[in-house]
Specification:
The complex is a heterodimer of chains A (113) and B (113).
Chain A lengths: L4 E3 L2 E4 L5 E6 L6 E7 L5 E8 L2 E5 L6 E5 L5 E5 L8 E8 L8 E2 L3 E5 L1
Chain B lengths: L3 E2 L4 E5 L4 E7 L4 E9 L6 E7 L4 E4 L2 E6 L4 E6 L8 E9 L7 E2 L3 E6 L1
Parallel strand pairs in B: 2-11
Antiparallel strand pairs in B: 1-3, 3-8, 4-5, 4-9, 6-7, 7-8, 9-10, 9-11
The chains are: A mainly beta (113), B mainly beta (113).
């Protein structure tokens, strides 16, 4: 158990809809990262937050947004969903200080029908 | 444009033998490399890492070798066990602080009893 939790585990929704994925980092970790894994692809970095502020952005679509709250949990919002958004979405956290290792949650499997 | 490449999608090894997983990278600014293991329906689990100032790091049955001139790293597992069967991801980062990881597409290792 990495200590990173993600909810929900599975999500099935229709095209055009909006969903919110939630992540709670390990206790004490200030950095939260969101990654997307599509079929047969590696993990693609979406966005990073550090202590409530956006730190880095990857190939995140404009239809996607995220935030990190004062209690350090993070939410990834996906809107105007398309079939191609179906993927595994992982959240990872790190302490943001002395280690480079990131610890991953179990992921949310999103299916857009 | 893949900066981290794992050219072997899959690998089969007999139990007790050595497993060698390879990874190539193109970005000479990468200064830290990590290997993650992923079981189905779980998030990636950190396995071992290496700084660019080293050429070898060992942790039990797992050893990572880094050849900076060739921009190549490899993960050796000796001896291989059936429980090692998983997808292995190579990842890299650059710069100071906690920056996002760049992942390869993964290699599926099957250890046959």
């Amino acid at each position: 158990d990495s200590g990173v939790t993600q909810t929900p585990k599975h999500l099935i929704t229709a095209t055009g809809q909006r969903v919110t994925l939630r992540c709670s980092p390990r206790s004490g970790d200030l950095s939260v990262y969101w990654y997307q894994q599509s079929l047969d692809q590696g993990l693609q970095f979406l966005i990073q937050y550090y202590n409530g502020e956006e730190r880095a952005k990857g190939n995140i679509l404009e239809r996607f947004s995220a935030q990190q709250f004062p209690d350090l949990h993070s939410e990834l919002n996906l809107s105007s969903l398309e079939l191609g958004d179906s993927a595994l979405y992982f959240c990872a956290s790190s302490d943001g200080l002395k280690t480079y290792e990131q610890y991953f949650g179990p992921g949310t499997r999103l299916t857009v029908t | 444009d893949q900066q981290v490449k794992q050219n072997s999608p899959s690998l089969s090894v007999q139990e007790g033998r050595i497993s060698i997983l390879n990874c190539d990278y193109t970005n000479s600014m990468f200064d830290y490399f990590l290997w993650y293991k992923k079981y189905p329906a779980e998030g990636p689990t950190f396995l071992i890492s290496i700084s660019s100032i080293k050429d070898k790091n060992e942790d039990g049955r797992f050893t990572v070798f880094l050849n900076k001139s060739a921009k190549h790293l490899s993960l050796h597992i000796v001896p291989s066990q059936p429980g090692d069967s998983a997808v292995y991801f190579c990842a890299a980062r650059e710069g100071s602080g906690n920056t996002p990881l760049v992942f390869g597409k993964g290699t599926r290792l099957s250890v046959i009893a």
